[in-house]
Amino acid sequence: MPRAQSHPRETDFDAAYDAVLARWPRPTTASELRTPHGTTHLLHHGPADGPPVLLLPGGGSTAASWGATAAALGTTHRIHAVDLVGGPGRSRPDGSPIRTAADLRTWLDAVLDGLGLASAAFLGHSYGGWIALRYALAAPDRADRLVLLDPTGCFAGFRPAYLLRALPVLLRPSAARAEALLAWETGGAEHDPAARRLDCLAAERPRRRPVTGPRPTPAELGALRPPVLLLLAGGSRVHDVRRVAARARTAVPGIVRETHPAATHHTLLESPPPAALSGIAAFLTG
What CA–CA distance (Å, rounded) separates 148 from 216? Predict the structure, then answer.
């Protein structure tokens, strides 16, 4: 069925989303789930009876950005990639606004229930890592394992230089400003051009202000029950990777840490090194 007429920039975004999605492994399907906080759009790949993995993108990215991860894990696991409600993807915020971490838990509870899952492993990138960690702390029986890809707001704050570069995108969003930020952050590292275009157009999409909050306390992190794999981008300009690694090692007993020197914050999701993908697969099956 043809799409309804839309604004030209929205049409550009849809075309960019479809271009990234076209490179997902086959078969890939899409679905929508009604939740108290809006209609959630998901992408699915992998054997129906495989161990479930829920993928949460960063605040400016979409479910489509997980294609390489889906290809690496989808031979053994059932992949469910989520467009964040209120984010730039194809979920619709046609329910109660998500205003608190408790609302995020209610939303993810509804997503798991809608998928018929008692629990799942969680992979989260950037802000999606913060959501996944908060959910694992609040609902430990529903989070089997936790993979955090260069997560923000979990173990350390942002670099001031990154905040200064990101400010124009936040105050006056445009594809050109987003491109300038990504060009600076990736610094010439390999970055999938189709995924990059999608992220740039996503900056112009209407979105709700994301829920934020303080970093988890040392006591909370010390009580974290699911096994945790922390993948860090050695070239990340978003935060001090060494500080993140040190604080995670101190706070989370048994955490597995890997740093990929050639990756940056954004390329770790969209152009992940093969070693990162093999590390995730080994952790999930270990």
Answer: 14
Range 251-277 average pLDDT: 96
HEC-encoded secondary structure of 116-171: CCCCEEEEEECHHHHHHHHHHHHCHHHEEEEEEECCCCCCCCCCHHHHHHHHHHHH
In this prediction, residue 213 carries a pLDDT of 82
Q: Which of 108, 130, 104, 131 has its CA nearest to residue 120? A: 108
Q: How far apart are CA 185 and CA 68, in angstroms?
A: 21
Cis peptide before 27 (omega within 30 of 0): yes
Distances (CA, A) of 31 to 28, 35, 44, 56: 10, 13, 8, 16
Structure tokens at 182: 């990504």
Cα–Cα distance between 219 and 223 in angstroms, integer? 6
Please name which of 12, 2, 5, 41 lies closest in space to residue 205, comparing C-alpha atoms.
Answer: 12
d(C-alpha 231, C-alpha 6), whole Å: 39
Q: What is the pLDDT of residues 246-258, one digit of tens each?
A: 999 999 999 999 9
Question: Is the pLDDT confidence value at 224 over 80?
Answer: yes
The 10 Å Cβ neighbour count of residue 246 is 14
* pLDDT for residue 9: 62
CB 130 within 8 A of CB 124: yes
The reply to whether the predicted model has a pTM over 0.70 is yes
How many Cβ atoms are within 10 Å of 109's Cβ, its own excluded?
A: 16
